[in-house]
């Protein structure tokens, strides 16, 4: 018998993580001060802080974050919606599934980043070129999660509700969709990540605002502090979103045993 | 009088395996029929066909005089495997069949409460299946099946996974419930003792492809005491006769499994 391992103490883990971050930032800073790291290429935490502070004073940060979030949310909703509807259609009809799923697998293998300039060509420097860039990433994540979720459903559950009098739509509503929801929720975090990537990359290629635009603009100025500053903002954004999604997931999946 | 009738039923799966060959079986209304036979002889398949979940390759199945087309009306099916919806609470699981039949409001609420009470799960209405023990889940499944008052009850080794004590309790509960409502029951089991203790009639099937090998009337008086009835001399006599039949089939089934594997 193996001993049951105790989960690591949360606060101790957190303290160590904070120590690790502070330690690396200090090493970076002192590396620059001691002349071992060239700030032109690598910037320095203090300079990044100053850059971010400057952006804050100009009101750039809130605006950039708002723009990027708007694109991300639209991309997520649109891509998620299309993905779910498509999955329900293709999973509930043998013919449609057999015909179309291989195409989706094929499209999913296209490196979508290369399409972004095309979207900018089609939609201009508008919200839509960003949203579409996000959508083409999100659709596939959500589609495959939903499709697998429906296909994976225990046939005994379907048999049970059919005997109790469920028609096709009832089976969909009471069995297939709830079963797929587990998978959809577990794909939600990667879907949000992909939506953000799509939006930021599209901003990078052409925009007037947004975190991706801020990074690209700094890069054009050879301003490494600006690039790192933009990345830092993205990191914080993703962190906050993930915290929120974790809460949401826990609330929506109350019927699942908690992972040990 | 027959309520369920199988005539010349053969079932061959897509894999080419024939699970049932020329099965003939008539069940009178309100009878409690136990179906026993070696593992893999087609007992679950028989229930699937009666419920309309699956179609025979040849032969006909009629329920209440008409041939089974879609899902058979008025059937309750207690599956061999867990079939509660994991995302619904006990209450919502028991409510579901009523919801599907358009029964709502106060009537649905009181029937659900009544059945949860009858299977002894009051206080667990808001629990999810993963929070219940195996025996409790079986009881929820029983409530879910009985709440819509189906005329025919198909039960596929419903108590096989339970410990002996819980099992005896559930068997006794089942008999009480059945005596109150007089449904037609087809009860699949591996366990001859369980079959004799519960049923009016025991049907022994042959090793696969399954056929009906023999039928026995169980004339033990009702109401029966699940624990005491096993000591009745008529019980032991029936048991040894049936076991003679069943043993040959079980041995046959093992011999084939060994030859194949
Ligand atoms: N969908 C299927 N496709 C192919 N073969 C099947 C299928 N379902 C069942 N079988 C086969 O048919 C035979 C009968 O299966 P069934 O489940 O009816 O047996 P059973 O009598 O209920 O057995 P047990 O007592 O072990 O539950 C088995 O040999 C099984 O392998
Ligand atoms: Mg079986």
| Average residue pLDDT of chain B | 93
CATH C-level class of the largest domain in chain B is: Alpha Beta
CATH fold type of the largest domain in chain B: Rossmann fold
How many domain units of chain B?
Answer: 2
Helix content, binned percent of chain A:
over 70%
Structural class per helix/strand content of chain A? mainly alpha
**Helix-strand category of chain B:** alpha/beta
Largest binding interface between chains: A-B, 21 and 26 residues
Notable features of this structure?
heterodimer, A: 260 residues, mainly alpha, MetI-like fold, 2 domains, 11 helices, B: 261 residues, alpha/beta, Rossmann fold, six-stranded mixed beta sheet, 10 strands, globular, binds adenosine-5'-triphosphate, binds magnesium ion
Structural commentary:
The complex is a heterodimer of chains A (260) and B (261). The mean pLDDT of chain A is 91. Chain A is 80% helix and 0% strand. The longest helix of chain A is centred in the last third of the chain and has 38 residues, at 168-205. Chain A folds into 2 domains: 1-37; 40-252, Orthogonal Bundle (MetI-like fold). By secondary structure, chain A is mostly helical. Chain A has helices spanning 10-33, 39-42, 45-58, 60-92, 94-108, 116-123, 127-151, 155-163, 168-205, 211-220, 224-252. In chain A, helix 4 (60-92) runs antiparallel to helix 9. Chain B is α/β, with parallel strands linked by helices and 261 residues long. Chain B has 2 domains: 4-74 and 152-260, Rossmann fold (3-Layer(aba) Sandwich); 83-150, no CATH class. Chain B has helices at residues 43-51, 90-100, 105-118, 134-146, 164-181, 192-198, 233-260; strands at residues 4-12, 18-27, 32-36, 58-63, 66-67, 75-78, 152-156, 184-188, 201-205, 212-217. In chain B, strand 4 and strand 5 form a beta hairpin. In chain B, helix 2 packs parallel to helix 4 (134-146) and helix 6 runs antiparallel to helix 7. Chain B starts with a strand and ends with a helix. At the A-B interface, helix 8 and helix 9 of A face strand 6 and helix 2 of B. The complex binds adenosine-5'-triphosphate (ATP) and magnesium ion.
């Amino acid at each position: 018998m193996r001993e049951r391992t105790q989960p690591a103490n949360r606060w101790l883990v957190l303290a160590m993580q904070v120590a690790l971050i502070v330690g690396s930032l200090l090493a970076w800073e002192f590396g620059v001060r001691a002349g071992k790291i060239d700030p032109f290429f690598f910037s320095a935490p203090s300079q990044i802080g100053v850059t971010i502070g400057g952006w804050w004073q100009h009101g750039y940060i809130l605006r950039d974050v708002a723009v990027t979030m708007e694109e991300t949310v639209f991309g997520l909703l649109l891509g998620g919606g299309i993905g779910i509807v498509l999955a329900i259609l293709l999973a509930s009809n043998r013919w449609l599934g057999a015909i179309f799923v291989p195409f989706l697998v094929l499209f999913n293998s296209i490196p979508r980043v290369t399409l972004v300039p095309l979207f900018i060509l089609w939609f201009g420097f508008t919200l839509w070129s960003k949203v579409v860039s996000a959508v083409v990433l999100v659709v596939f994540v959500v589609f495959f999660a939903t499709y697998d979720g429906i296909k994976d459903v225990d046939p005994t559950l379907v048999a049970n509700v059919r005997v109790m009098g469920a028609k096709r739509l009832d089976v969909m509503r009471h069995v297939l969709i709830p079963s797929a929801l587990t998978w959809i929720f577990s794909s939600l975090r990667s879907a949000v990540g992909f939506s953000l990537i799509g939006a930021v990359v599209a901003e990078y290629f052409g925009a007037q605002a947004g975190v991706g635009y801020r990074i690209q603009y700094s890069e054009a100025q050879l301003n490494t502090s600006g690039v790192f500053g933009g990345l830092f903002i993205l990191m914080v954004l993703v962190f906050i979103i993930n915290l929120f999604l974790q809460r949401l997931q826990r609330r929506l999946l109350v019927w699942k045993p908690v992972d040990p | 009088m027959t309520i369920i009738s199988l005539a010349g039923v053969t079932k061959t799966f897509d894999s080419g395996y024939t699970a049932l060959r020329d099965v003939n079986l008539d069940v009178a209304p309100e009878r409690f029929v136990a179906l026993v036979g070696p593992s893999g002889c087609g007992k679950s398949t028989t229930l699937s066909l009666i419920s309309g979940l699956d179609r025979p390759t040849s032969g006909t199945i009629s329920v209440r005089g008409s041939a089974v087309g879609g899902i058979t009306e008025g059937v309750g099916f207690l599956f061999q495997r867990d079939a509660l919806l994991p995302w619904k609470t006990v209450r919502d699981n028991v409510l579901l069949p009523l919801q599907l039949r358009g029964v709502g409001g106060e009537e649905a609420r009181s029937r659900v409460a009544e059945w949860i009470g009858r299977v002894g799960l009051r206080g667990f209405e808001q629990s999810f299946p993963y929070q219940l023990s195996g025996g409790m889940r079986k009881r929820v499944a029983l409530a879910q099946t009985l709440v819509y008052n189906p005329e025919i009850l198909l039960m596929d080794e419903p108590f096989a996974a339970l410990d002996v004590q819980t099992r005896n309790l559930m068997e006794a509960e089942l008999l009480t419930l059945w005596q109150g409502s007089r449904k037609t029951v087809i009860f699949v089991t591996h366990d001859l003792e369980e079959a004799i203790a519960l049923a009016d009639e025991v049907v022994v099937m042959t090793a696969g492809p399954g056929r009906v090998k023999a039928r026995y009337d169980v004339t033990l008086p009702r109401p029966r005491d699940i624990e005491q009835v096993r000591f009745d001399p008529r019980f032991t006599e029936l048991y040894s006769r049936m076991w003679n039949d069943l043993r040959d089939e079980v041995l046959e089934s093992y011999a084939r499994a060994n030859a194949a594997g």
